[in-house]
Amino acid sequence: HKVVGYLPSWSGDTNNIQYDKLTHINYAFIRPTTWGGLSAIDNPNKLNALVSGAHAQNTKVGIAIGGWSDLDNRDFETVAASASLRATFVTNVMNLVSQYNLDGVDIDWEYPTASTAWSFDLLMDDLAVALHAQGKYLTAAVVGAGDYYGQHVHNAVFEDVDFLNIMAYD
């Protein structure tokens, strides 16, 4: 079983985390840019402290990319639709994973729709190839049931992710 927590960059203290009760912690959030980059890490010292504390307890740390966007996902949509932008994005993600000694990536695109689901598939496949080649994990945050905000995830994504994080609160 996986026990996954999210630590928001704007709240919480790394000294109060019960690392021994978690298998994974995702640091939330950064966003993609429309040119394939990533927004800056908010509170990088906190991320460094999280990685240090988690790794000391054999807990894995990932970066959560995405989060709530008032359904404005032009950043994800633009990057995912272009092979060259996906390649740039994957390179930037891998550089960030290396820079912060992260164990993986959680994609929290809220939400791929029927018209963007194929691009989501391609993005997840490209990320999976790069991350898995380095022994890193890839997850996605999805809603538990229904057609929430038109979320549409193809079965092909299940082959790319190591596991899914179900947003039961939605």
Please give a structural write-up.
The chain has 170 residues and is of the alpha/beta class. Helix content is 35%, strand content 22%. It is built from 5 helices and 6 strands. A 6-stranded parallel beta sheet has the order 1-2-3-4-5-6. The mean pLDDT is 92.
Compact description:
The protein is α/β, with parallel strands linked by helices. The protein has helices at residues 44-56, 74-80, 83-99, 117-133, 156-160; strands spanning 4-8, 24-30, 60-67, 104-109, 137-143, 163-167. Strands 1-2-3-4-5-6 form a 6-stranded parallel beta sheet.
Bin the strand percentage: 15-25%
Written as H for each helix and E for each strand, in order along the chain, the element string is: EEHEHHEHEHE
This entry's quaternary arrangement is: single chain
Question: Counting H and I runs of at least 4 residues, what is the number of helices?
Answer: 5
- Characterize the overall form: globular
> Any idea what the radius of gyration is?
15 Å
* Main sheet properties: 6 strands, parallel
Order of strands across the biggest sheet? 1-2-3-4-5-6
The low-confidence runs, each spanning 5 or more residues with pLDDT under 50, are none
The number of strands is: 6
Determine the structural class based on helices, strands and strand pairing: alpha/beta
What level of helicity do the residues show?
A: 25-40%
